[in-house]
Amino acid sequence: MVHAVLAVLVGVACSDSVSVPTTWTATLTVGSETPAPTGTSTLGGTAVVMIAGGGTAQGTLTYTLTLTGTPTSTISAAHIHTAAVGVTGPVRVNLCGAGTAPACPTGAGAVASTVVTYTTGSAAVLGSPALTFDGLVSAIHNFGAYVNVHTATNGGGESRGQLLSPGTGTP
Question: d(Cα 9, Cα 110) in Å, to the nearest integer?
């Protein structure tokens, strides 16, 4: 019996999948943006990201972006970036307003569940230096990814939140 349980655990540990479906949430606030945005804004919201697959299997990132408050100007884009809290990093996934992502809401509103698919875990995501889907998953698991929303006034970002798993608190 012990050998059977051990064999199952080893099989799971050696599986081709880098991650099981995992949900991560970012709470977006103006005060978290780096550098601090200009103008008066109450833009906030949440981003919920679910990750599945990777390794030699197809990887998917499913997300819902819900914005609240009033931005300084038109919302131009939202992305997932890789970097630690308080550090700016490269764009890795377009959530709205860029590439093939859906349009951004003009103010408070939502981008409904949208799926981004990667052929395998070794498929490249956006940005430089090069990073794979598996690398992005690893960054998210290590508190090294954030969501931010850009506006016409604050092209570098107006509202930001680090991606966290439920119950982890702050990185």
Answer: 40
Using CA atoms, how far apart are residues 120 and 43, in angstroms rounded to an integer? 35
Q: Rounded to an integer, what distance in angstroms lies between the CA atom of residue 139 and that of residue 6?
A: 29
Give the separation between CA 95 and CA 93, rounded to whole angstroms. 6
Domain of residue 109 covers 17-162
State pTM to two decimals: 0.85
The enclosing H or E element of 8 equals helix 2-13
Q: Is residue 74 part of a domain?
A: yes
At which residue do the structure tokens 């290590």 appear? 142
Beta bridge partners of 44: 68
Q: Where are the beta strands (DSSP E) in the chain?
A: 19-28, 44-53, 59-68, 75-82, 91-96, 109-118, 145-151, 159-162
Q: What per-residue confidence (pLDDT) applies to 16?
A: 45
135: Cβ contacts below 8 Å, ≥ 6 apart: 125
**Is residue 4 a part of any domain in this protein?**
no
Q: How many domains does the chain have?
A: 1
Residue 10 has pLDDT above 50, yes or no: no
